Recover the amino acids of this structure.
């Protein structure tokens, strides 16, 4: 294992310390590294709270700030944050209008966010993201996994909350965006969890894991590495088939790197995926390309297609100022 | 070699096609993939033109747009753009106020930009970046290499050009910023050039290349991988020593990933480097952490310290809207 770290037990807290120092203008770190919260809370705004196992940066701490999340709870690497962490963050950021939890569909996350919600005294609602079309009921999940599409839900709900939308409407919006979003990923290498010290799974020098999860969970199958166009075709076909009829729809196309795949390859995949969706009648009106929902040092990428109506488009375009996503301010 | 590509000969052009499509709102691709230019040129503004071998994305094409470059010429991977490419881009973006070339100090780049400058008819000036303190006279370079500090020069000169600064003053400003900027990097793995199909250099499972160049050029020495704090200490010491007295200075601290190093590790290195510079009396007033000047799929990072006066600070903060760097708009 080759990582920039001092010891595996301290990698998360030392990284969070650096992160909080680098972005001290927009966020602050809670005690005992329990959460990252937006520096300037807006009284009367519904608070958006997310979190999950660490190792997916910039998700979620990198999306704390104006126009997106009010707080994020970082669990240990690939481990859910505790109910205690989540509750403390919820209390911290609730300014009276309630808290919307945005939770990726993993059993640990679902359980711990639910326990925190039960202990909370104020109004609280939850959006569960499950955009991964690759598999049902995998290693850590009942149903579908929540992956890169979570960013889209956090951005759009974040902008709506900023614009003054109430808790119930935000939950409905978040559910709608999640329902209009599909993703699938491919790994070329495994990630390595610092505490484990060795790759999560073995993969041959000419193999890929098709439909991989963001913790290295198995996908649909192991296959020989194929040309980018063939990989893109299979991903786009799986997403299009799952949507049903997408012809004539407007969409955000998001190609996401898993951590160790450089921009040159991501843009090549973006170009391939865009042509394939356009050939199916989709109008790609917004784009995002980069490593936003990662899996530590895994080489690979995912493709997300999110169908956007006028309202979602307006919220996607709204100003955002976080460590990981920034425009309009 | 595991990359998302169709064939090694087409990886660059297919990636550029995807890039230009994803960012069609701000830039356009020149014929034969010779350059990427800003979509809306501003008549009367000095044009900023950079470029170099591909494989360092988002540098340089990702820095084309408002407040930074007017055009970038992508050479083949790790290969200088041709004089013909550079000349064509210069003619395309010169709206009458002249062209400032920003060139990283590699022999091929220096020669080809110089040949283009000789053939150009309008006023033209050049800033040569050479911020890498690791070594003198390495594989492709006489003197010091131009590395991640080039981003700082492009950002600050770009904002100054946007504000109406003339060609001569821009050259002086670029030279000043370059002179106030120092970098050094460490590789944990080699990069793999697509056309070569195998790693550029061999490195053991417990080794690092200290002072590596962004094409995998040898650094100061091969060493056993050490804890992050020890690596940061040696880099910061080399940079501080090269500067001479930095106590009391205000600086931008930029921790740059080489392509395959995830955010968690970069932020840990940022935290370590910041403490070390602060202990030497530096006041870190601006920060940048991410993979901006890469070396294909190399795991590793560099640290850049750039001393900023009030004017440089103002230009660093000025709005920028490019694919790779964006704020204030």
């Amino acid at each position: 294992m080759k990582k920039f770290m001092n010891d595996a037990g301290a990698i998360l807290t030392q990284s969070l310390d650096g992160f909080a120092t680098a972005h001290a203008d927009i966020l602050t770190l809670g005690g005992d590294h329990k959460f990252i919260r937006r520096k300037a809370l807006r009284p009367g705004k519904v608070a958006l709270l997310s979190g999950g196992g660490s190792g997916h940066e910039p998700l979620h701490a990198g999306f704390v700030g104006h126009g997106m999340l009010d707080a994020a709870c970082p669990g240990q690497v690939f481990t859910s944050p505790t109910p205690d962490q989540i509750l403390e963050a919820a209390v911290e950021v609730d300014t009276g209008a309630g808290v919307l939890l945005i939770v990726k569909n993993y059993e640990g996350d679902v359980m711990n966010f639910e326990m925190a919600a039960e202990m909370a005294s104020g109004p609280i609602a939850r959006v569960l993201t499950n955009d991964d079309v690759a598999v049902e009921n995998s290693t850590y999940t009942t149903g579908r996994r929540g992956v890169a599409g979570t960013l889209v839900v956090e951005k759009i709900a974040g902008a709506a909350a900023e614009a003054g939308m109430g808790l119930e409407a935000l939950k409905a919006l978040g559910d709608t965006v999640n329902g209009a979003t599909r993703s699938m990923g491919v790994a070329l290498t495994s990630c390595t969890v610092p505490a484990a010290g060795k790759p999560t799974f073995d993969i041959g020098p000419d193999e890929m894991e098709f439909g991989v999860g963001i913790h290295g969970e198995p996908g649909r199958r192991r296959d020989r590495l194929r040309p980018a166009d063939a990989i893109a075709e299979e991903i786009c076909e799986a997403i299009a088939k799952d949507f049903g009829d997408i012809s004539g729809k407007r969409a955000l196309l998001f190609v996401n790197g898993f951590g160790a795949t450089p921009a040159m390859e991501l843009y090549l995949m973006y170009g391939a995926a865009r042509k394939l969706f356009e050939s199916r009648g989709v109008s790609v009106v917004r784009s995002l390309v980069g490593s936003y929902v990662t899996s530590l040092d895994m080489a690979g990428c995912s493709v997300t297609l999110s169908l956007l109506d006028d309202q979602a488009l307006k919220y996607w375009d709204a100003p955002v100022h976080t460590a990981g996503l920034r425009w309009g301010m």
Residues 5 and 104 of chain B are 27 Å apart (CA to CA).
